[in-house]
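Batch manifest, entry 17 of 40.
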Amino acid sequence: MTSCMLENSFADFGQDMVFIGPNDLALTVLGYVPAKGDEPEFVDAIEKIVAAARKHGKWVGRLSNNGALSKEHLKLFDTVAMSTDIRALQNWYTAELQVARS
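Output type: structure tokens
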């Protein structure tokens, strides 16, 4: 996504926040998942997204894999969601299965 496209999307659509899914972004800019997180193209894409969002007064959030990464990510992002959707579903299902088996 070009900087111009980012600028237009933040200016035109009236959203309050952009949320970065690291795997979605990695697949788009790198062509594979998961990203290691330090690939220049990946880092550059995140920096462009954050800069465009800040320019338009938007919050920026992202997924983080654990507490340590969440703490690090909160230095740049306004909010983080810890874990992934599949991990959250797995944890819920495991807990419910334990209840059913008890």
